[in-house]
Amino acid sequence: MHRAALAALGLHDWHYQLLPAPPQLFEEIVRGLPAAGFRGANVTIPHKEAALALADLASARAQAIGAANTLSFAEDGAIEADNTDAPGLLAALGEPVAGRSALVLGAGGSARAAVWALREAGARVLVWNRTPARARELADELGAERAAVSAPADLLVNCTSVGLGNSSNTFKELPVDPETLGRYATVVDLVYRDGGTELLREASRRGCAVVDGLEILVRQGALSLEAWTGLPAPLAVMREAARRGSHPAPDDPRHPSPPSRQPAPADPRRAGEAAGP
Predict the structure, then answer these.
(1) Considering 2, 47, 48, 112, which one is annotated as catalytic?
(2) Which of 3, 69, 86, 237 could form a disulfide with 117 if both were Cys (CB 3.0 to 4.6 A apart)?
């Protein structure tokens, strides 16, 4: 996706590559990137909290969410952290959420970004998690409300991994069922599968607008690219490349890793993705 975008922008001396980073070596690897010619890095789980912790500067949203998925390196080597997951979600929705209600399923890092983004945009946000204490903790911290069971809302946002594996278990593991999906105007699933997840297929059948995880991936990736290059991201190119390179069940539906590649020769400006083992 990023490689296709760089080519479309004519940045042929830029390279985007996979950077495996075991947790115990993550900080050492990241601190060495500026001197190696990198301009930035996307950060996947399980490194997002560590990325925020090591940064010299961090955006207000990364600090509020408590995690960073995008690092940018200044000329002096300073590391700047941001979280593009949050604005990427709003961009993928493509419509204002102020005054609307949203039910967020999950209480992990992606849910934190979703809750913060929706709250900042003026929505009333409810949080459900199979462990009620986690939902309560997240809701209290970010100014949302805890939902003990599935609640009516304008938007339903699935931030759990349900649907990544056996899709037949979707409605056994989530607090919604096919018959009630129609009460949500829009259903968002951060999980991406070829052909759509069972949740999105059922939502579409019930007349809901749907947003899949790949579109959110494209939108957050576009914001990272723009931060590094200063150029508008070619969304159509990135979207097509992401769909061509997608797999039915990637390890992380929100941040699929690009293929591994050997480092480019000295000097070229580069961006990379620091992924866990």
Answers:
(1) 48
(2) 86
Domain 2-84+220-275 fold is Rossmann fold (3.40.50)
What's the Cα-to-Cα distance from 175 to each of 185, 270, 273, rounded to whole Å? 17, 43, 34
Q: SS3 for 127-142, per residue? A: EECCCHHHHHHHHHHH
Query: Is 48 noted as a catalytic residue in this protein?
Result: yes
Other CB atoms within a 10 A radius of the CB of residue 156 amount to: 28
Distance of CA 118 to the CA centre of its chain: 14
Kindly report the number of other CB atoms within 10 A of residue 116's CB atom: 25
Which range, of 172-181, 200-209, 253-262, averages the lowest pLDDT?
253-262
Residue 126, strand partner residues: 103, 145
The two beta strands, 38-43 and 70-73, are antiparallel
Domain ranges, ordered by start, for the chain: 2-84+220-275, 87-214
Q: CA-CA distance, 19 to 50, in Å (whole number)?
A: 16
pLDDT(161) > 90: no
Look-up: residue for tokens 């829009």?
A: 186
